[in-house]
Amino acid sequence: MRLPSIILLSAFFISIAYSSTLTAKGRGLASVGLSTPACLFAKKMEVHGHRGMNGYPDNTLQSFKAAVTAGVDAIELDLQVTKDKVVIVGHDAIPNVGTDRCGVDGKSLQKAALFDLNYSDVSKIRCGIKEYTEKNLQPFPKLSEVLEAFKHVKASSGKPLRLNIEVKYFKDQAQYYPPESEYIDLILQVLRESGWNQDRYFVQSFNHDFLKSFKSKVSDIEIVPLVGDARNAEKAALDLGAKMANPGFWQVTPELIFNLHKKNIKAIVWTPNLESEIHHVIESGADGIITDFPERFYKVREELCELY
To answer: CB neighbours of 111 closer than 8 A, spacing ≥ 6?
Structure first.
């Protein structure tokens, strides 16, 4: 996910303050009159591997396969577009400034934007973890390649693996993407040609106007608003006619999730990574979790279920 810097900074400090007071608050499902053991809620939660999972280059087939091996129900990924209009998977429009460092033949990309390069050039790029090295380098996959690779894959639950597709399209980054209508058509073409049932994926974005435009073109693909402040989740979902809203974890409470559920709105919460944060999301009664550390979620769930 990407939010404006001021929101990310605020979220960071809220997260730190929240984590330090989590135990003292003592909030949980009982605060809304629910006595169901947290173990049962955890077992029902859908686990999404954020850009795959930690320890592998983001948004790569290697990372996605590792997340599937770890047991996730869905893969969360981000979209970018090349100059010749190939939809690829990657988090940053300028990849060399993101969490991964990318280059070609040992040379940095510096500030090259993916939308300024044809796919033939993008296909030569290799990205590693944290910094550009010769080890553990991975290419940018096409969205079509991801869909093909996992078309027949099932999650550990036995259900078909799902995709959580995040669309990047910010007003201050319009130069890195095709015009909105064309971008939507490019995405839809890949999805339609994949042969995937539309109930196996949904499209999420922080740009709710983009989601409205997406919905106006196609009604059978689920759209989901991403929201930084969980208190805005209900309004965002209702404004879009969405059945789900995906909020940041730091302001999620049992009351908030309970009220969303009363409106038949689900919530997949991002991106709790510490065990204390994961505990909090489980205690809230949320429907799912997007995390870099799916193995931590399963560890927490196992510990909770040992109590019953």
So the answer is: 94, 96, 97
- Enter the tokens of residue 303: 């510990």
CB-CB contact of 289 with 267 (8 Å):
no
Q: How many domains does the chain divide into?
A: 1
CA distance 288 to 46: 4
- Quick one: average pLDDT of 33-45? 81
78 part of a folded domain: yes
**Are β-strands 74-81 and 201-205 bridged in parallel, bridged antiparallel, or unpaired?**
unpaired
Mean pLDDT of 275-286: 97
15 lies in a domain? Answer: no
Helix, strand, coil percentages (3-state) for the chain, rounded to 5, are 45, 20, 35
Residue 196: burial class (beta carbons within 10 Å; 0-12, 13-18, 19+): middle
* Residues 111-165: tens digit of each pLDDT: 899 999 999 999 999 998 765 555 578 999 999 999 999 999 999 999 999 999 9
CATH of the domain at 120: 3.20.20.190
